[in-house]
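User: Predict the structure for this protein chain, please.
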Amino acid sequence: MYTSKFTSDALEDVSALPKNVRNALKREFEKTIHRDPIACSEPLTGPLADFRSFHFHNYRVIYRVYGNLKIVAVVGVGKKDKTHYAEIYKKLERLAKSGKLAEDFLRAIRLLESP
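Assistant: Here is the predicted structure, written as structure tokens:
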């Protein structure tokens, strides 16, 4: 079984979701993502090539899998849009290009190293 770690931006994304969606997403993490985060998601390309996208109803969960640590590092959650290119991808690509995604990601990973 895997566990999840969230960047500060991902936590903000989740907090902005309606409560019923948050609860359902939490159950989905336990039922699906924590069991096999690779099989239930699709690989991304471009600046987000190291990340995966899990589709949950009208939302996408973007994360990176660390198989050796059994960790899913969630970097964003966003709503799908009509053009099939979700705003969450645009946001994460901007963060990746600015270096902020890496900073947030490292901050989340450092929490794992804390006693």
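The first helix runs from residue 8 to 15.
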